[in-house]
């Protein structure tokens, strides 16, 4: 039985929506251009919280080395510790280590390398849907360690990867399974719990790493429940800033031989001195999501408030996604609009993050994106001449799409305006 409210989502009140918009920079306009601008390219870098940039600047302005004992140094240590606790809040990580790098891709290569180089086994399994950061890391280390590389095919109906397909590639000689939580092209959410359970039934010692860069800003992650060995996210897609990649590393993965400084305690993944400002950015992200959660529940632990906030984000985005696909009394949705195609359109909304891959039948993808831009709407084309999307698109038998990726800061009015413009573009001669 399908629960309809779960399928339909729940919108924020207008009042809350307004408050949310005010907490972010540039939701409705771009300082470099005149007039209203709708930004639907959050999968390429999301709206930034004003609080993140403010706190980042305040902390980064301090010249002090955190590895000292004077007052400001101790303060900076506390900032880092709070940030680390907040990374744990995001992941619900009660054990393991944290890994911070300049990008999520670097974190992925570090984790995959440690498994491939230390764990016996003759093959590595990943999926055709992966972002190059995970796919290429698995490919690179499979080749380096002489292991068979086993990419799993995608499902062109759901836009995801089926549990059974993944499991069919895992055997007792698989040393690593790496898969993404959700796709940055189709928005499909992979059933992480089912994949992990079935994979470990086949191979109880299997190391599992997840790329959560796409999913983290749209849903709850719980490593305590999942029992994965590594998982990452990128703050710049999660209301934060560029310049950092964050990962959780399980205790057993932490202990594997990896890049580390001899002076640090065993299991440390941090190399050198990370910037405290990157940690305060995480604290501000978690503060924001907890504030949002606090609009719906009165009290709770930081994790409980965070989970509530993320679930509300998910439900609001789902309601917006329904509006974009099915329309309203004002205007028809993409599914019914003449001259428009929606790709990888899984009808089960609970299996999707809010990304719509679509096309305008009479316009090429690149041209359509330029036409949207002329009308004040920023979306992005994913085409099979781009190395970042070719493999995934080929796997679905597609040569491209316009990727539309709004965020919970957006409102129903933004959806309707996008639909109006889409209708106009679909009718261009
Ligand atoms: C799903 C997914 N994984 C990984 C990455 C890589 O993140 P970063 O640019 O921080 O290395 C991206 C970036 O687009 C992504 O969308």
Question: Concise description?
Answer:
With 429 residues, the chain is an alpha/beta fold. Helices cover 41% and strands 13% of the residues.
Report on this structure.
The N and C termini lie far apart (44 Å). The protein has helices at 4-8, 14-23, 50-60, 71-91, 104-118, 132-145, 163-169, 192-202, 223-226, 251-254, 276-293, 302-326, 365-374, 390-396, 412-426, and strands spanning 38-39, 97-101, 123-127, 148-152, 174-180, 207-211, 230-233, 245-249, 340-342, 356-360, 377-378, 380-383, 400-404. The chain has 15 helices and 13 strands. Strands 2-8-7-6-5-3-4 form a seven-stranded mixed β-sheet, sandwiched between helices. It is α/β, with parallel strands linked by helices. The structure holds pyridoxal-5'-phosphate. Pyridoxal-5'-phosphate (PLP) is lined by residues 103-105, 131, 133, 180, 184, 211, 213-214, 234, 245.
